[in-house]
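Session log. Operator J.P. requested a structure for one protein chain; no other inputs attached. Running the standard single-chain path with C-alpha cell output.
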Amino acid sequence: MDGGNQSLVSEFLLLGLCHSWDIQVLLFMILFMIYLMTVSGNIFIMLLIINDSHLHSPMYFLLANLSFVDMWLSSVTTPKMITGLLRENQTICFGGCMCQILFVHFVGGTEMVILVAMAYDHYVAIC
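Structure written below.
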C-alpha cells in the first residue's frame, strides 16, 4: 500500500490585491512607473560610473555592480506582477514559479555579497 501523494501541480493561481478593475489599472500605472524609474535610475548610475574617469575606483566599481544587480533583482518578478494586474486569469506555471524563486535567491545573494564587499572596502578605508 503506497500512501504517497499522487497529485500533480501544473500551475498556480495568483490572487490579486483587489477585485476592482479601476484599482487594478491604477496600480498597474503606478507600479509600472516605479519599475521604469528603478531600471532607468540604475542604468544611469552604471553609465555615469563607466563614462566618468574620476569614478574609476573600487568603491564606484562596486556601486556600479550593485546597480546592475539591483536592476536584475527588480526585473525578476516585477514584470510578471505588473502584467498580471491587467489579466483576468492570473496564473503562473510551476516551472516559471521555480525559475523566479531560483533567480530571486541567486541575484539576492549576489547583491548581499556586493554589499559585504562594499562594507569591507569602507572598513579598510577607515582603518
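Operator note: The chain has a mean pLDDT of 88.
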